[in-house]
Write a structure and sequence with these properties.
By secondary structure, the protein is mainly β. It has one helix spanning about 1-30, and strands at about 35, 50-55, 70-80, 90-100, 105-110, 115-125, 130, 135-150, 155-170, 175-185, 190-200.
């Protein structure tokens, strides 16, 4: 079994090397030719003309479009409140949709205790970029509403919501996010959200 696995691995490595060498050979053959005049001699008093390089027909590289949405899963930790929904904590599904570089619509569904909370917020974003224009992280703050209901959608309550946090791009595909959500009930409820979203 071990010998068969080693043979299979060697075949894959050999096939990869052949493809790599073939690709390099094709690239070398596609280099533009340079025409150098043959009548130029070292003793000629005429100035040497520069070689003629044919323009390349290679297509220009297009910039990748920014990904303005993500969806992910996180945990919410209840910090203050009556111990239900947001203040109880639990598994959270969250999403974001950028309206522009400066504004986003964010939402989450928190499954905590005997009641579940759904948040909807409009946030202002403040992207911090490097000198090359790459986004390092994006603080955000905003407000909206929090909808609390039992698992069978009974006893629905709607309250105000204040939220703030930060998005940290990990790669083109993934973003780490943390947020503090404050539900404006008779007793203020606070939950801290930590998770990773998939960009698309």
């Amino acid at each position: 079994m071990y010998a068969t696995s080693m043979k299979f691995i060697l075949v894959i490595i050999g096939f990869t090397l052949v493809l790599s060498l073939n690709n390099r050979s094709i690239q070398a053959q596609s280099l533009p030719s340079i025409n150098i005049p043959s009548d130029v001699t070292p003793n000629s008093n005429e100035p040497l003309s520069s070689p003629t390089v044919m323009p390349s027909d290679a297509p220009s590289i297009e910039k990748e479009k920014p990904l303005r949405r993500y969806i992910g899963i996180s945990g919410t930790i209840g910090v203050n409140g009556v111990g239900k929904g947001l203040s109880h904590g639990g598994i959270t599904i969250f999403q974001k949709n950028d309206l522009s570089d400066s504004f986003s619509i964010r939402g989450s569904n928190i499954f905590g205790g005997d009641k579940n909370d759904s948040t909807f917020a409009l946030t202002a974003n403040f992207p911090v970029k490097t000198s090359s224009g790459q986004v390092k992280f994006v603080p955000f703050i905003g407000g909206g509403m929090l909808v609390r209901a039992k698992s069978n959608f009974e006893d629905i309550n709607v309250r105000g919501l204040v939220t703030g946090g930060i998005d940290i791009p990990l790669s083109r595909s993934f973003t780490a996010t943390t947020a503090v959500n404050v539900g404006l009930f008779q007793q203020t409820e606070v939950g801290v959200q930590l998770g990773i979203g998939y960009n698309f």
